């Protein structure tokens, strides 16, 4: 909430002196961060998902077992499947946890959730978010280049700070559903900010650390690799912007490689030494899961599945298909775990991998041919995240945050990106709604979503009021369509009698509808990245 | 950014805080046999749903008045009736006569919390929005900040959404009354205020300023001419609105008398629990309740209250103005809270409402008062298990008001409205200067004190000889503050000339 608050902080600052205004993130950032943290604390008593038990179990495993057993332990079904740094992180947390409630650190105490445990785990998320807050402050400094005398709430730094700190997805996924995405995203944002600040080595180090916390960030590794190679290892360009091969610096490549490799060695070294690497890797990459996660993420495969379903229904209606031969999937159950395609060819993990790589490739090549500084890198990173979200295997709907958070940075720098951001953030966040399905949390998710959306739309619109409209009428109409869709899925449908027989319909509808928006913004982002940007203007902005 | 979206954000944020607080425990949760205010409200739904109107206020086999008998005016009863109807539709067990006593379930809690939210959304929140946006000659940013602060006031949120009551309804009606009066819609104002009175008899705390302001307006219009006519119209409106609220009970005198007996239980003593008023604080050293007969207690408290409110009321009647009216509301409500008979700790909310209305006129003192008022309810909140919610909402409020409201940087006499007072003091004591740093210092000390006492009440175990040590400390601490605030507000009231024309006007 920041917004009204900021309004006055601004007016106060201007009256008492522009000390904090000059530095870009002065008093208002701290105030905002404390306020947001306090508001997060209000979510302490809310519902938490099985992920809460997952992390409690990991606390117990890393605390009570020797390292050699971490990746073998399987008392609980929620086995450790994050890279070693995250295990060490849990190990450290457990050091504190033992003073709070030692019972939570016993591996056999399945589904243990005493009040102290809940308090401890929830607070650990809020406290580790300090890293995220710091990263956000660094990002705000990167966009605050222009000297403008605008009101605080129209400053890019302020808008970005709210967009990041009050990110709806992080709030509900971390502080209600329960996960530690906050500080992980913090590391990612910090490494992006370091690239903006030309501290490339630090950035590479941070990203390597990040990869060893959660391997989902591998999706954006191509952008890092390419950017480091092209803009750091090659120190010069030809006048036409193409790479000057002579300028290659082996020293830089070596030092980069050394940094990254030593981080990996630190993380995986012990397991290599123990001869457990295959076991660790098999835990990290479980390809046994289905194409789509329990709730379909709004990506290409959701659309693919829906087309398949539609075709099979039409086929049966037109008697082109024999109902007996159609493999009916497990779709009629509440959770769509595995889905058998009846008309279209079934999708293999390999196929998704190829699709993902193909979708990422043009953006990475573009980064090679026209690096365009950190902005170009950021664009490529977002495209990598979105590409893997669109075509990846067993994608979680939460993975959309990987694209939304970096896109927030771009959104405050250009009107075009702001428009894309609004579509992507709104649809992406809306698709997170099924994560929280309990009645008391319904008002919370709606309110949080409204706060974020109202703020992002009105703040970005006010920021770019001199330029063209951010959203075309089709986009506006599409986004407004989310309101009736949400009302139908969350309120109307559960009251009808179909809810018992066909509980998956709301999920299907919302992921299908959101998939359109995500695909659309992905395509638009791709087009704007590949078409020639007025780079002169971009440079001025930085 | 447009004012409109900022206001929407403020309201959404306030709703978010309200709903998250409501996820916490309520008063008397899982505490048989009597439970708490939550059960009282549920029980009223059960009674009003199952019994005919004539029996609502009477003791009978189906309506044991000893068990949370209905002791609020008819509008509360109708509200309970309405909620009872909906509850019956959703789940008949919730309001089954006698069988539903002490009913608790997650669904039911959700339902009850939702009724509070709906009432708040219909009555209180729109009133605050209208109030804040009708303040003329104030920049829109200031409107937003006062909207934000008033809506985030933790006391009301904690009592309504945590402890469980419907204070926002009666306070909302009273606020609509203030709004109507400031638009000079005198009839509408008195009509709406009658609703407030008929929802909760505690609104009597606000009734004197309403009466005096309207009377003053009539006197200004000329007691023989238009003023008399206005007085007549207002009188008819008040009687008509009361009659409207009391229709089902007007058939027999016994009904009316019984309702009144239920509303004003004089036999319940000077104060209950630990209240931050003068009597309770005095009894720490001087056992008022034992030393004086209950009749003389009644007279004593009546006399003190009267003496305390009379000056404000007379001045308001002589020179009625909207700004003065708001300050008179503060003075009277605070006097009633401090001196009157049978005061609950929650009654401080009746003072907080008018104080939050002057948050733009006296930002520092209002914020301070609102913080202390929330703090004064700490023993109650601790009993309900709302410590966490109390700490968080208070810190949020402190943070928001600190960054939104214009902080008087140098504590000049002007900035805390004491200039006229200081000028008149200087006539006698020419060396007199208001020590600005002292006020800032005492504000900080007071905050520290509240923090320390909160910590102590939450963590420390009182010595066995003094089991009530911390509640008494909390209430005495708050009482000292309230006396100081009463003094301060009275000074402003009598020295400020409240010129409606030159100053900002609602």
TrEMBL record, chain A:
One GO term of the biological process aspect: dolichol-linked oligosaccharide biosynthetic process
Cellular component, GO, one term: endoplasmic reticulum membrane
Subcellular location: Endoplasmic reticulum membrane
Record's signal peptide: none
Pathway involvement of the protein, from the record: Protein modification; protein glycosylation
Membrane topology note: Multi-pass membrane protein
Keyword set includes Disulfide bond: no
Chief location: endoplasmic reticulum
EC number(s) stated in the UniProt entry for this protein: 2.4.1.-
Keywords per UniProt: Endoplasmic reticulum, Glycosyltransferase, Membrane, Transferase, Transmembrane, Transmembrane helix
Enzyme class: transferase
Region (Disordered): 1-23
Transmembrane feature ranges: 28-47, 156-173, 203-220, 253-274, 343-364, 376-393, 444-464, 476-495, 507-527
Keyword Endoplasmic reticulum: yes
Molecular-function GO term, any one: dolichyl pyrophosphate Glc1Man9GlcNAc2 alpha-1,3-glucosyltransferase activity
InterPro entries (alphabetical): Glyco_trans_ALG6/ALG8
Assigned protein family: Belongs to the ALG6/ALG8 glucosyltransferase family.
Protein name, as recorded: Alpha-1,3-glucosyltransferase
Automatic annotation (TrEMBL), chain B:
Origin: domain of life: Eukaryota
Keyword Transmembrane helix: yes
Chief localization: endoplasmic reticulum
Keyword terms of this UniProt record: Endoplasmic reticulum, Glycosyltransferase, Membrane, Signal, Transferase, Transmembrane, Transmembrane helix
UniProt KW Endoplasmic reticulum keyword: yes
One of the GO biological process terms: dolichol-linked oligosaccharide biosynthetic process
Gene Ontology CC: endoplasmic reticulum membrane
EC number assigned by the record: 2.4.1.-
Coiled coil start-end: none
EC class of the enzyme, as a word: transferase
Compartment list: Endoplasmic reticulum membrane
Catalytic activity of the protein: an alpha-D-Man-(1->2)-alpha-D-Man-(1->2)-alpha-D-Man-(1->3)-[alpha-D-Man-(1->2)-alpha-D-Man-(1->3)-[alpha-D-Man-(1->2)-alpha-D-Man-(1->6)]-alpha-D-Man-(1->6)]-beta-D-Man-(1->4)-beta-D-GlcNAc-(1->4)-alpha-D-GlcNAc-diphospho-di-trans,poly-cis-dolichol + a di-trans,poly-cis-dolichyl beta-D-glucosyl phosphate = an alpha-D-Glc-(1->3)-alpha-D-Man-(1->2)-alpha-D-Man-(1->2)-alpha-D-Man-(1->3)-[alpha-D-Man-(1->2)-alpha-D-Man-(1->3)-[alpha-D-Man-(1->2)-alpha-D-Man-(1->6)]-alpha-D-Man-(1->6)]-beta-D-Man-(1->4)-beta-D-GlcNAc-(1->4)-alpha-D-GlcNAc-diphospho-di-trans,poly-cis-dolichol + a di-trans,poly-cis-dolichyl phosphate + H(+)
Pfam family name, one: Alg6_Alg8
Function: Dolichyl pyrophosphate Man9GlcNAc2 alpha-1,3-glucosyltransferase that operates in the biosynthetic pathway of dolichol-linked oligosaccharides, the glycan precursors employed in protein asparagine (N)-glycosylation. The assembly of dolichol-linked oligosaccharides begins on the cytosolic side of the endoplasmic reticulum membrane and finishes in its lumen. The sequential addition of sugars to dolichol pyrophosphate produces dolichol-linked oligosaccharides containing fourteen sugars, including two GlcNAcs, nine mannoses and three glucoses.
Name of the protein described by the UniProt record: Alpha-1,3-glucosyltransferase
Species of provenance: Xenopus tropicalis (Western clawed frog)
